[in-house]
Amino acid sequence: MSVPVTTLIDDPIARVLGELHERLRHDYRGEVSASIPTLANADHKLFGLAVCSPDGFVSEAGDVDVEFSVQSISKAFTYALALSDRGREAVHEHVGAEPSGEAFSAISLEEETGRPDNPMINAGALVTCALVGGEDAREKFARIRSLMEAAAGRTLGFDETVYEEEQAASDRNRALAHFMRSAGSLTDEVDPTMEVYLRQCSVLVTTRDLAIMGATLARGGINPVTGDRVFSGEVARHVLTVMATCGMYDYSGEWLLTVGTPAKSGVSGGLITASPGQFGMGLFSPKLDARGNSVRGVAASQDLAERFQLHALTLPGGNLPVVRESEERWPEFGAGVVAIQGDLVFASMRGVLAAMEDVLDSTDRVLVLDLDRVTRVHAVGEKILQGAIDRLHDLEHDVVIVDGARRGIVTGAVEVETLDAARDWLSER
Amino acid sequence: MSVPVTTLIDDPIARVLGELHERLRHDYRGEVSASIPTLANADHKLFGLAVCSPDGFVSEAGDVDVEFSVQSISKAFTYALALSDRGREAVHEHVGAEPSGEAFSAISLEEETGRPDNPMINAGALVTCALVGGEDAREKFARIRSLMEAAAGRTLGFDETVYEEEQAASDRNRALAHFMRSAGSLTDEVDPTMEVYLRQCSVLVTTRDLAIMGATLARGGINPVTGDRVFSGEVARHVLTVMATCGMYDYSGEWLLTVGTPAKSGVSGGLITASPGQFGMGLFSPKLDARGNSVRGVAASQDLAERFQLHALTLPGGNLPVVRESEERWPEFGAGVVAIQGDLVFASMRGVLAAMEDVLDSTDRVLVLDLDRVTRVHAVGEKILQGAIDRLHDLEHDVVIVDGARRGIVTGAVEVETLDAARDWLSER
Amino acid sequence: MSVPVTTLIDDPIARVLGELHERLRHDYRGEVSASIPTLANADHKLFGLAVCSPDGFVSEAGDVDVEFSVQSISKAFTYALALSDRGREAVHEHVGAEPSGEAFSAISLEEETGRPDNPMINAGALVTCALVGGEDAREKFARIRSLMEAAAGRTLGFDETVYEEEQAASDRNRALAHFMRSAGSLTDEVDPTMEVYLRQCSVLVTTRDLAIMGATLARGGINPVTGDRVFSGEVARHVLTVMATCGMYDYSGEWLLTVGTPAKSGVSGGLITASPGQFGMGLFSPKLDARGNSVRGVAASQDLAERFQLHALTLPGGNLPVVRESEERWPEFGAGVVAIQGDLVFASMRGVLAAMEDVLDSTDRVLVLDLDRVTRVHAVGEKILQGAIDRLHDLEHDVVIVDGARRGIVTGAVEVETLDAARDWLSER
Amino acid sequence: MSVPVTTLIDDPIARVLGELHERLRHDYRGEVSASIPTLANADHKLFGLAVCSPDGFVSEAGDVDVEFSVQSISKAFTYALALSDRGREAVHEHVGAEPSGEAFSAISLEEETGRPDNPMINAGALVTCALVGGEDAREKFARIRSLMEAAAGRTLGFDETVYEEEQAASDRNRALAHFMRSAGSLTDEVDPTMEVYLRQCSVLVTTRDLAIMGATLARGGINPVTGDRVFSGEVARHVLTVMATCGMYDYSGEWLLTVGTPAKSGVSGGLITASPGQFGMGLFSPKLDARGNSVRGVAASQDLAERFQLHALTLPGGNLPVVRESEERWPEFGAGVVAIQGDLVFASMRGVLAAMEDVLDSTDRVLVLDLDRVTRVHAVGEKILQGAIDRLHDLEHDVVIVDGARRGIVTGAVEVETLDAARDWLSER
Question: Which residues form a coiled coil (chains A, B, C, D) (predicted)?
Answer without folding.
Answer: none
